[in-house]
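The authors assume throughout that readers already know how a fold can be written as discrete tokens. For illustration, here is how one protein appears when written out as sequence plus structure tokens:
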Amino acid sequence: MSKAKAIENKEIVQAIVIADSYNDNFQPFTSTKPLALLPVANVPLIEYTLETLNRNGVEEVIVFCSSHIDQVKRHIADRQAARCTWSTGMRVSIVSSEACRSIGEAIRDLDSRNTIRGSVLLLGVESVTNADLAALLEEHKRLAKVDRGAVMTVVYKEGLRRMRTGNEVVVAHDPTTRRLLYHQRLAQHERERSFELPLDLFLANRDVAVCHGLLDPQIAVCSQAALPLFADNFDFLTRDDFVRGVLINEEILNSRIYVAKLAREEYAMRVNNWQSYHLVSLDVINRWVYPLVPDTAISEFRQQYKHFRNNVYRHRNVRLSRSCELDGDLVVGEECEIREGTYLRQSVVGRGCRIGRNCRIVNSFLLEGVTVGDGTVLSHCVLERAVTVGSRCTIEPGTVLGEGVEIPDGLTVGGLLLQASEPAADEWGTTPVEKIADRAYTIPVLDEEDSDSDEEEGGTGQPAQNQPHAIAPLPERYPASVYEPSDEECDSGPASPVPEDANIFLSEVVESLKRGLAEKSNAEYLILEINSSRYAYNMALCEVNYYVVKAILQIMLQQDGVATNTVGTLRRLLAYFGVVFRNYIRDRDAMMDCLKALEEMCPTSETVRAKLPQLVHYLYEADLIGEQVIIEWYDGLAEAGLKAALSKLVQWLQESSEEEEEDDDDEEEEDD
């Protein structure tokens, strides 16, 4: 094959980004602006999506728009002209159709254009994640080679405790193959006390794992065959419809769906209503989405924010009174002014905002150009662009003030959606619209009784993916994030660092090792870099051992051909990283840390899980791990599947050890 032909046949890495949610959950913002430009911590949603795709090596992104198309096109063009980070190595094109009213229609439109040339990442612009999407794509390609009917891998994440956002699902899957067997979306209002699963599910499958309360961030990897399935089935309006249809007609369609659960340190959440917007904003501020945090200049080459104690991010150009109090978990944007005696906590203040004296702002989100008068209280609310709130006002939880709304002095607004102009007579049908002020009109929302009838989708008995519901008050107390480290601590050394430090340390080790491998620099210099990061983040030695091995394994999984030649790939990497590996993995405890890293990679990597005995055997043969440590680690394994896979290796080690002892005894008898 000629070089030109090989280049022509090379499959480029593509991604489809659906830029609309096809619901009214973000009224009044989406009445004048696209969802893609909704700012999270002062950065539009689409910037998080494109930056994540760029970091995962995506070469071409197709952004599908159905509303406010010109604004999205203008934003993309402006960012490309500004040479932002994702514009230099990734092609972004806009495909639009105002006639589309669902994800299914968007996919059918894309299928008719023949723009997809292989496996493709499919996600919504509202999906915020720092997950390793490249590894998910490669794993799906591996699955597709084994099972030609694998049309989709859906991504899930462990859910929030005691809280519903509309993104939660119950799924059942085969724990060995990870093939999806059952899927049900949970109700927003958390009213069910039990779940009914078909009996056939358990009769037809030997092993079934049922997972309750998983988060669905609307991220999937699709084979090229998935798009024609949307085209052939016009009742597939949402991704839930697609999943349900494939599960019901698996044999007829000869198609199967697989499950990928993200690792504990990976973040993924869908911003599907104002409540989840609140949660994701605070997760970004609390650095769970690292490296997508304000002080790393998302999609920018120049840092804009400085990170201060208690997760306070301030732009370099702000005006703060000496007596104002920034309590914590805050983003304060460019050209903001905050006057005397004002208190802020767990909030975002957009560019050019003016906040008066003696205000109290808690869990509130102020977009660009908002003005707040003296003595005003804002609690758990959203103020959109150019909103003006007078003095001595109280804006109560659940309130959303649309662009240009003006609230006069002394007014209390409780849990309403307001827009600046009076809606047209036919815009909301017969639902009454109330005038609050000259530039403040209510937007009707469905009450809980009305939403009950609309909650089920197409008579299937399952809640709709995009549930129209009254915006409930945002949580008074931000719950502890689910993205937390293991409760297990090292036997020695200082206490484990906070999760963000551990994640940052791991990412820095990975970057150092990858850079050294690419440049073929002296590997001993990498030890100096790792030690420097260790002291910067106060990492215990056992944690350093663990993360160094984990970093090498992550790099291994990104290499070409790793699925078919895993041990050979590790051998090739250790030919360079061996100096680093031996520097940290020296004694029994360090070897145990190494094996623990291998063990904890198994739930997130099918490659490591399938090749675990061969990897451990290679490390033993290379004199990197001792046999007694392997046996001790094996005895402490809790998962039966791993013990079964390693049993032959451990048996061989024990027999070899006994033979050596017998040989030693024979030699001693001959000497006597």
Remarks:
- Residues 640-671 form the longest helix (32 residues).
